[in-house]
Design brief:
Elements: H1 2-19, E1 31-39, E2 42-44, E3 47-50, E4 55-62, E5 67-71, E6 76-80, E7 85-91, E8 96-101, E9 114-119, H2 123-145
Parallel strand pairs: 1-4, 3-9
Antiparallel strand pairs: 1-2, 4-7, 5-6, 5-8, 8-9
Length: 146
């Protein structure tokens, strides 16, 4: 009976971890500037992290052929000619992870020229770790019971 009560408590804790809102850190919005070098078939850097509300400026520099940068979810695009810099400025007002990809066909490996923009914190990672710990505790209780 005691192990069933512990499992019930773990299940309730799992629901809290999965659905309770996490405290959001209060961070003042600021201006962020990223210089992205685009070449066949990669961006450098390919991962950008900003806080919600930040004003983001991307300086896209093409080093070989014409490249573009399109941000899914924001529907923003910019194109840079070889040796040129193109500038894209926007406010990161949508939280989550968004892919950015080349919007100009630049060769055979063009579909693999992608990157990631993360706006805000990674809540899913924190929730996944919490749920994993609860699952391990549940298994330990079941093993001890049998």
């Amino acid at each position: 009976m005691r192990s069933y009560l512990l499992l019930l408590l773990l299940a309730m804790a799992g629901l809290v971890v999965a659905f309770a809102p996490l405290p959001a850190p209060v961070v003042a919005p600021r201006a962020r500037v990223f210089r992205i070098d685009a070449r066949q078939f990669a961006y450098a850097p390919s991962v950008l992290a900003v806080n919600s509300g930040d004003t983001v400026t991307i300086q896209l520099i093409s080093t070989d052929v014409v490249h573009g940068l399109y941000i899914d979810g924001y529907n923003l695009a910019v194109e840079a000619d070889p040796g040129q810099t193109a500038i894209l400025t926007f406010t990161a007002n949508k939280a989550g992870s968004f892919r950015f990809r080349c919007s100009v066909t630049c060769g055979a490996m063009h579909p693999f020229m992608i990157g990631k923009l993360t706006v805000g914190t990674n809540d899913w990672l924190l929730r996944s770790v919490g749920l994993s710990v609860i699952a391990v505790l549940g298994v330990l209780i079941l093993v001890k019971r049998s």
